[in-house]
């Protein structure tokens, strides 16, 4: 049915969850993300997924519960034998559970030293989790890259025995949050990687929006345009905003295609004109 990798970077308190399945909307089905008092937890409840169990396990972790008690919580839940759980907390905690009624091959791995846990059910064989674990350990990239490397290796080793069709990736941490989902796709791992790269490149757009909101402060222009220049090479939306920020800051226009220049000019023009449509009018306004 599903295989999931959860991982933590204890140095930065970043956490990530990646999941792949034959079933559509896999991320929406398995994910519970929760937070309290500055702490965050990500839980996958899969096999016969249960949002209620995911929420219960997350609450236990956020209440400083002993994660060694997670299997007992799962076993005691309704239908516990059919459940599978993998979870990670931003305090470096990891826990898994695989019920005895999960469809074979089903199993889980917890590597506390490496900060990673894996769980899967209805897999081709045990080699799927072994390949994922090895790929995670061999990867040296950012946390989201390492999780995706593990998922990709799991898929290459056979993945869901019915074939992989859906995938999702969630990260929470210092370098920004991601929430990406792929459904009914012939190559879900490749599509998830494309979305991951795109999302990381477009993260700079949030800085652009905040810069405009603050009135385009001059002392922030140089680092902002440097980030835009780096990301613009591979993303058309970022290229447009590189031109926009340069125009608003009174800088020379960076090299851009005619289409990018037109799009940027339209954005600048729209930002310069206050809205006057009916949604901005008060009850006493008259046309």
TrEMBL record:
Keywords for this protein: Hydrolase
Protein's UniProt name: Putative Ntn-hydrolase superfamily protein
InterPro entries with a match to the protein in the record: DUF1028, Ntn_hydrolases_N
Native organism taxonomy: Bacteria, Bacillati, Actinomycetota, Actinomycetes, Propionibacteriales
Gene3D superfamilies assigned to the protein according to its UniProt record, in alphabetical order: Glutamine Phosphoribosylpyrophosphate, subunit 1, domain 1 (3.60.20.10)
Family matches, as SUPFAM superfamilies: N-terminal nucleophile aminohydrolases (Ntn hydrolases) (SSF56235)
Pfam families with a match to the protein in the record: DUF1028
Gene Ontology MF terms in the entry: hydrolase activity
Superkingdom, taxonomy of origin: Bacteria
């Amino acid at each position: 049915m599903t295989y999931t990798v959860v991982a933590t970077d204890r140095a930065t308190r970043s956490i990530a969850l990646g999941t792949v399945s034959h079933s559509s909307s896999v991320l929406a089905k398995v994910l519970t993300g929760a937070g309290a008092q500055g702490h965050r937890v990500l839980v996958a409840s899969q096999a016969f997924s249960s949002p209620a169990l995911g929420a219960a396990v997350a609450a236990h972790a956020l209440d400083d519960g002993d994660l060694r008690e997670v299997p007992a919580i799962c076993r005691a839940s309704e239908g516990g034998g059919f459940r599978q759980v993998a979870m990670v907390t931003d305090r470096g905690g990891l826990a898994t559970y695989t019920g005895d009624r999960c469809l074979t091959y089903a199993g889980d791995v917890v590597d506390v030293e490496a900060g990673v846990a894996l769980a899967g059910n209805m897999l081709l064989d045990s080699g799927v989790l072994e390949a994922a674990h090895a790929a995670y350990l061999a990867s040296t990239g950012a946390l989201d890259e390492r999780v995706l490397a593990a998922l990709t290796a799991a898929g290459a080793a056979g993945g869901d025995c019915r074939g992989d069709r859906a995938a999702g990736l969630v990260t929470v941490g210092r370098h920004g949050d991601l929430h990406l989902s792929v459904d009914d796709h012939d190559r879900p791992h490749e599509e998830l990687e494309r979305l991951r790269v795109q999302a990381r490149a477009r993260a700079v757009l949030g800085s652009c929006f905040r810069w405009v909101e603050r009135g385009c402060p001059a002392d922030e222009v140089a680092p902002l345009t440097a980030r835009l220049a780096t990301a613009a090479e591979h993303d058309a939306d970022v290229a447009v905003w590189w031109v926009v920020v340069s125009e608003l800051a009174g800088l020379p226009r960076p090299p851009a295609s005619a289409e990018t220049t037109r799009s940027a000019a339209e954005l600048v023009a729209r930002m310069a004109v206050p809205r006057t449509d009916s949604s901005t009018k008060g009850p006493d306004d008259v046309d």
